[in-house]
Design brief:
Elements: H1 3-16, H2 22-31, E1 34-37, H3 71-82, E2 89-94, H4 115-124, E3 127-131, H5 151-175, E4 179-183, H6 197-210, E5 220-225, H7 241-250, E6 254-259, H8 273-277, E7 283-287, E8 289-291, E9 294-297, H9 303-314, E10 321-325, H10 334-353, H11 357-365, H12 369-378, H13 384-395
Parallel strand pairs: 1-2, 1-10, 2-3, 4-5, 5-6, 6-7, 7-10
Antiparallel strand pairs: 8-9
Helix pairs in contact: 1-13, 2-10, 3-10, 5-6, 9-10, 11-12
Bound molecules: L-rhamnitol and zinc ion (ZN).
The site of L-rhamnitol has 11 residues, from loops.
């Protein structure tokens, strides 16, 4: 018996005293997919022009050495990251990451441009998610895409959205698990806005057109991502939380995507999840770490990420909430950044699954709130690290020692 396995037996006994079955927790942990975003590896530069400029109210700040400058380098680094990430994994692609030398226009993208990724996914036994790229392009230079007053601009991006759904459908069909195609636009206004309704009506119409054609949900599910503000859209963003919440309630061809960094600083995504589950909705999450005005630091085992995962588990909604990552930090080694964030998101999921949920709910139902709080607090120092080590070992990925391999 390995040391990790021996330690796991000790942890298992201690958790059992709190009514937690660690074997069952690990089974769920292993099979719940977490979608790892492809873009931390090279600062959202895509696979076409390796020094392309990032626009659309988002920015990858920093100049850590080692940014890939060819597709080969990019792939080597991505594989290095994936090799350190345990559990069922999906890879979230962006439309600027096609696997082709053709440089197709965004409104001309086809599944064939992503066929290489399907082979890659099959080889690495992972799923794929998709993101249209409604930014970093001359047609988005005005700051407007799907809500643009210019019909030609809107039409271009509507086509792009449609292309990406088709690619998502292709991914789902090929890989036997639904692809989440997540639509986020950076449209907005820097300052006092005279017409806040017009852009929303145009956005609604554009989305209606994109989602008009039904796609089998077994292959592709579209999500729409809200945001409070971005760089240069500090005052007004048509795609707000309220806008998309209403949109998904009126158009059942798509689901909500909440990014943990897209709200007022004291507002928490975790507290919103059960309100969607109450209506039977599926949803997508962008797990990220906001720091003051920035929404995209590397995910950490912090209170909010733990609480997000706890809410999913407590709502018994592991099959309804699709978990994806979204961060880009160019100031630290990029492969490690991907690995840290992905492992930490899964650690938080593990902690949620190891939580004495039954005991907590029982104490609450009995009105014994002191016991509820005591359980909540005592559970914090149960030996979760030993369970994590064992999980990594059974998944064939490095344990804590992976830290020693990080080079600058
Ligand atoms: C931007 C959104 C969006 C992007 C990715 C790259 O604020 O969070 O999800 O980060 O599409
Ligand atoms: Zn996001």
């Amino acid at each position: 018996m390995s040391t990790a396995e021996k330690n796991y037996q000790i942890a298992k006994e201690q958790y059992a005293e709190f009514g937690v079955d660690t074997d069952k927790a690990l089974e769920l942990l292993k099979k719940t997919p977490i979608s790892v975003h492809c873009w931390q590896i090279n600062d959202l530069s895509g696979l076409e022009d390796f020094d392309s400029e990032l626009t659309g109210g988002i920015q990858a700040i920093g100049d850590a050495p080692g940014k890939p400058h060819s597709r080969e380098e990019y792939m080597t680094n991505l594989v290095k990251a994936l090799d350190c990430i345990p559990g069922a994994t999906k890879l979230a692609l962006h439309a600027i990451y096609p696997w082709t030398d053709d440089k197709p226009e965004r409104n001309m993208l086809e599944p064939k441009h992503f066929a290489g990724w399907v082979d890659f996914a099959k080889e690495h036994n992972i799923g794929l998610d998709m993101n249209p790229t409604y930014f970093s392009h001359p047609m988005s230079d005005s700051g407007w895409t799907l809500a643009s007053p210019d019909k030609a601009v809107r039409d271009f991006w509507i086509e792009h959205g449609k292309c990406c759904r088709k690619i998502g459908e292709y991914f789902g069909r090929e890989l036997g698990q639904p692809c989440i195609t997540n639509h986020w636009i950076g449209d907005g206004m820097k300052d006092y806005t005279a017409d806040t309704l017009g852009p929303r009506l145009r956005l609604k119409d554009s989305l209606d057109q994109i989602f008009a054609e039904p796609i089998d949900r077994a292959y592709n599910i579209d999500s729409v991502e809200s945001k409070l503000f971005g760089l240069g859209s500090e005052y007004y963003v048509p795609g707000s939380h309220e806008f998309y919440t209403n949109y998904v309630m009126s158009n059942h061809n798509c689901i909500m995507c909440m990014d943990a960094g897209h709200f007022h600083p004291t507002e928490q995504v975790s507290m919103k999840i059960s309100s969607y589950i109450a209506f039977g909705e599926e949803m997508m999450l962008h797990v990220s770490r906001p720091v003051r005005w920035d929404s995209d630091h590397v995910v950490s085992v912090d209170d909010e990420t733990k609480q997000i995962m706890e809410e999913i588990v407590k709502c018994d909604a592991l099959d309804k909430v699709h978990i994806g990552l979204d961060f880009f930090d160019a100031s630290i080694e990029r492969i490690a950044a991907t690995v840290i964030g992905a492992r930490d998101a899964r650690k938080c999921l593990m902690l949620a699954l190891l939580n004495p949920v039954e005991e907590l709910k029982k104490a609450e139902a009995e009105g014994n709130y002191a016991k509820r709080l005591a359980l909540h607090e005592e559970a914090k120092t149960l030996p979760a690290g030993l369970v994590w080590d064992y999980f990594c070992e059974t998944e064939g990925v490095p344990g804590r020692e992976w830290v020693k391999g990080i080079v600058q």
